[in-house]
């Protein structure tokens, strides 16, 4: 298989289509000519050293970061400077953050129903039923009436995943979801993510959990210095990296 | 706690004396009691000394004691009073006059300081460089200059340079500003005006009912209701309708220049204007700081998370940012309001007749019963501050939803 | 197995639309309709106010001369400040003896500098006692009778130097007292605690002006008959108590920030209560409370102006007296108050900045 898996893939069938994307922070060129097509149901793991632009890239997809050049189409909607447009895209994309970012002043249940009630305009009872369903899926229905500060990190992150799922997104973005967790909690979060992947959710996941990548990813992308260095199926990527930079990176993170 | 201590004491007392005797002063519990006993003895001696000295001094200077003076007449007039007052009224009444004036200037100050504070506090986060800089300049200028100086500045450097009554600055033919203060038209009720007042009360009640209904409907059906627009419509519409139906049962009493001064209308004296400006601007700077701190206490991730679930910017503000920042702002507001009330005593530098100036100042000068009169004055400030504390705690409870 | 070598793409310059002065102006001044309107309005307002103000303050201002007659131009009459500058800074202290005031101020600066320069070990042994002695040394120098200098009574002390000295002297004496009150408030002796709480809440809840009034009309009644206590001394007592109450609360929050482990560690090496408090806890409390201590000092420093209400000749009181002087009746209130405001602003602003800076340093300390 060639390093450019998607070169022959039709842009029309992809749910995310990124073409020649460039972004600068002031004078600093963070993303350089990024091209990426994501098919529906595809699971992508993005890895790379810190500062390589991987988080910035996925934050561009729901417009938490703006970019200066290139185009980005999410589910057929082109990202342009327009509030309605941005809101439409954000409704289709769920995001999970490194530091959970749960709303500390709201109970778990209220955290989950906030989106359905205010964005999707659902009745409260229906929103709560949905929320409870997702809480059961992440296996903490009994915590519904607690506040975020009373939960462990792993539980908080599972609530955060449930919160994103409540708005019924087509695409899920994960920005280093396990980096802020204690080792024994990483598994409970990864289990939820694996389950989600098996159900066919389109996922873009920035993570260094290589076990997760091997298990569920359709494609692994390695980024450095603001560009996509190499992308391949997990098997090829880990067994047979094509670029020296990738090899070095893998040696470092798989060393122990 | 206290109970526990006493039982320990009893236990200690029943212990065989030979056990405790050796080192009883080294036992931390006994030590504590010894220290406290010494403190008590010291305080008793201190207060006994003070009281006996005071009584001696009062006797020597012929100062009376007790609260009989409250019933005698004061014999001087005040610059401004919210209730009818003349020189034959009693000290009890001038106490009330001063108290009402303190409350008036405190309310005006709190109202405008809050508005200024929130405007400049939020302005700090403006994308506009100029607005941000103006916010910084405002806060850093006014909180670093003594408030008494600001009062004097507005009073003698700004308001005192206004023209005389004849050359008043004016807006239309009804509002005049001159060296004697601000003259506004006065609203005079006619028959039927009570209907308009009732309609205002009804409108306020209607807004609460509407809010409740909208909340309930949203919970049931998910439909959102344009509450703000509807509320504003009711608040203005209903009284307007009442006005039209009753045929505008009001007329204005306009200030008119007669000779060297204005008659009619309402006069806001320059002392009150300058004190209100100074207190609002000074406290506003501190409130702006509090608002800034409150806003910064909400991590950026909160906004990002709210955006990622598709909330609109306005909703992010009202559902996520404000409730969280209020938990930081409300306690600070509480202490700023309290210091505003305490700072209203600077009125004494320009002679605005609030409680401290008329009672602890003018009246005390005449009567000389310092102890009683200072006690009464201080009690008012303590009570006012407690009241503010209670109201702010209630407010705090209503905005700060429990979380840990 | 052959691998490709990774050569990063060269970084391209950011598009002109996002960097450079044009982009800065667009982003910071004209980023939305609201901002465009706001910017235009602000620029317009500044343009209509600033030139006139600058002209009045500087260009058309009268700078030289000694009497009111020298103020011929339309602008500010700074001659007024010049003519009264000696009183504004030193009150009516005798002209030939001003070196004594300067010496006291110089000593204050030296001791403050010492406490920064000296190594930690000497700081506690040298700077702290010097600080505590300074108010009394200054009293002796300014009064002069004990050391055979010309006697200057306290009603002649005044001006800005009085504001500085009385604020500093209050701060110094309030420091140990407030620490005691804070300890009292934390103590588990119920009586000692309620006494501390009463003191703290009384002095925090009372307007400073009322306290000064009490100092001037009530305090004399408390002393035995025939004993008259100097007015400035009474004011000093009041300021010390006032500041102690605020500082006690500052220290209390400082105490709360000390981790329990510090107390346990101190207990575990067998230190007694006072050793534990003074050697382990106190230095840490002072360090974390530093920004708030400075803020309290700024507050008290600003409050020294309130002394004018009981006719203590501090800076603002002197300016007010000067304004009613029959040779200067031309209405110089704006100049006088602006000048006093400016002096206070400089002092308070620089101290606030310092507090912010210390806070940032402490914050980074915590993170490490």
Kindly describe this structure.
The complex is a heterotrimer of chains A (256), B (404) and C (368). By secondary structure, chain A is α/β, with parallel strands linked by helices. Chain A contains 9 helices and 10 strands. In chain A, strands 6-7-8-3-9-10 form a 6-stranded mixed beta sheet, sandwiched between helices. A 4-stranded antiparallel beta sheet of chain A has the order 2-1-4-5, covered by helices on one side. The two termini of chain A are 29 Å apart. Chain B is α+β, with helices and mostly antiparallel strands. Chain B folds into 2 domains: 226 residues, Orthogonal Bundle (MetI-like fold), CATH 1.10.3720.10; 68 residues. Helices cover 67% and strands 7% of the residues of chain B. Chain B is built from 13 helices and 8 strands. In chain B, the strands form 3 sheets. A 4-stranded antiparallel beta sheet of chain B has the order 1-2-3-8. A two-stranded antiparallel sheet of chain B has the order 4-5. In chain B, strands 6-7 form a two-stranded antiparallel ribbon. In chain B, strand 1 and strand 2 form a beta hairpin. In chain B, helix 4 crosses helix 9, helix 4 packs antiparallel against helix 12 and helix 10 runs antiparallel to helix 11. By secondary structure, chain C is an all-alpha fold. Chain C is flat. The two termini of chain C are 45 Å apart. Classes of the chains: A alpha/beta (256), B alpha+beta (404), C mainly alpha (368). At the B-C interface, helix 3, helix 5, helix 6, helix 12 and helix 13 of B face helix 1, helix 2, helix 7, helix 8 and helix 9 of C.
CATH level 1 class label of the largest domain in chain B: Mainly Alpha
Beta-strand fraction estimate of chain B:
5-15%
Task: Identify low-pLDDT runs of chain B.
Answer: 1-7, 9-21
Let me know the number of strands of chain B. 8
Number of helices of chain B: 13
Q: Could you say which overall geometry of chain B the principal axes of the C-alpha atoms support?
A: globular
Strand order across the largest sheet of chain B: 1-2-3-8
CATH fold call of the largest domain in chain B: MetI-like fold
Would you give the CATH topology of the largest domain in chain C?
MetI-like fold
* Helical proportion of chain B, percent range: 55-70%
Low-confidence stretches of chain C: none
Oligomer: heterotrimer
Q: What is the radius of gyration of chain B computed over CA atoms, rounded to a whole number of angstroms?
A: 29 Å
Greatest interface: B-C, 58 and 54 residues
Query: For the record, what CATH class of the largest domain in chain C applies?
Result: Mainly Alpha
Q: How far from one another are the termini of chain C? A: 45 Å
Specify the structural class of chain C: mainly alpha
Q: Name the CATH superfamily assignment of the largest domain in chain B.
A: MetI-like
pLDDT averaged over residues of chain C: 88
